[in-house]
Design goal:
This protein is mainly alpha-helical. It has 17 helices and 2 strands. The chain has one domain: Farnesyl Diphosphate Synthase, CATH 1.10.600.10.
């Protein structure tokens, strides 16, 4: 999804993210200049840094006034972002992607072998940072990396499968998307030494936001134009990734017609016809309802927290996501 980082409503967030950006590059520099070049490639390409922003905002829920982020919150955010970046290196190899964040993907520029090793290097650096924050954070990050792998594998396991269920879809996006956003918030709460009840509420928020985020992103893949998405509309259909709006359409009145188009590799004309059929049915609106429910659950979780700049920032992110849901519905 496009747009600025909604967490910027926190006055200190811009400076915190600038600091994080500088330290993020420094954290992956190697004695080998070539490895440094590859490892910093996507960092230099930019990004909204929503995940480390969540870590910083979650830690800020311990404060009654706006203030610069602690060193621990910045370190936790860096660890989270490096996991995200490492996963992107690996995803682009699997997808044979040529572009990422408007620049050449690492695999396109340097090849699959170097991209995989550089992705592993980023994950190793993330683990090193997490270890500096204590055993609980290190274990949480290791568990999250495992969930990312499980979620992605679950998606690949059911590529082109017309029998993929809604439960399998939700389990996959829980692993590949929601787990990292949940960990982002949980790490922020842990390093701020918040009460366990508040840490759990932040974790629920991150999970709920992540589930809603991925569903909205999957809807946008079908309803946005090529220029907005930076890739062809219905790209997931071409890849054999049947997302929630597709599954809900398959279960509806036009499911038989859609089923006859899918189940294997398709050409652009079939992709466009299938995407059009999905947009005309109830699958998109039903998927948006599910996303809205997850986003609302995230907002409700924040009610367990006292007022703070951090809560204001996280609530703004939820509001922004809900606006994206409504925009997708129109």
């Amino acid at each position: 999804m496009t747009g600025s980082n909604p967490l910027q409503v926190m006055p200190s967030m811009a400076e915190d993210l600038e600091r994080l950006e500088t330290e993020l590059i420094a954290s992956v520099c190697s004695e080998n200049p070539f490895l440094t070049e590859i490892a910093t490639h996507l960092i230099a390409a930019g990004g909204k840094r929503v995940r480390p922003g969540f870590t910083i905002a979650a830690a800020a829920t311990a404060l009654s006034v706006d203030a610069p982020a602690s060193d621990e919150a910045i370190t936790g955010g860096m660890a989270i972002e490096l996991v995200h970046l490492g996963s992107l290196y690996h995803d682009d190899v699997m997808d044979e992607a040529e572009v990422r964040r408007t620049v050449d993907s690492v695999n396109a520029r340097w090849g699959n072998h170097k991209a995989i090793l550089a992705g592993d290097y980023l994950l190793a650096k993330a683990s090193e940072l997490a270890a500096s924050l204590g055993v609980e954070v290190a274990a949480l990050l290791a568990n999250t990396i495992g969930q990312l792998c499980e979620g992605q594998l679950l998606e690949l396991e059911h590529s082109f499968s017309l029998d993929r269920t809604e439960d399998l879809y939700l389990r996959s996006i829980n692993g590949k998307t929601a787990s990292l956003l949940a960990a982002s918030c949980r790490i922020g709460g842990i390093v701020a030494d918040l009460p366990r009840k508040q840490i759990d509420a932040l974790t629920t928020f991150g999970f709920s936001y992540g589930m809603a985020f991925q569903i909205v992103d999957d809807v946008l893949d079908l309803v946005s134009n090529d220029a907005e998405m930076g890739k062809p509309t219905g790209h997931d259909l071409e890849e054999g990734v049947y997302t929630l709006p597709v599954l809900l359409t398959l279960a509806g009145p036009t499911g038989g017609e859609l089923r006859s188009m899918l189940g294997g590799p398709i050409d652009p004309a079939t992709r466009d016809a299938a995407a059009s059929l999905i947009r005309e049915g109830q699958g998109v609106s039903l998927a948006i309802d599910r996303a809205r429910s997850y986003a609302d659950a995230g907002r409700s979780a924040l009610e367990a927290l006292p007022a703070s700049p951090g809560v204001t920032g996280l609530r703004a992110a939820a509001d922004y996501l809900l606006d994206s849901v409504e925009a997708a519905a129109t």
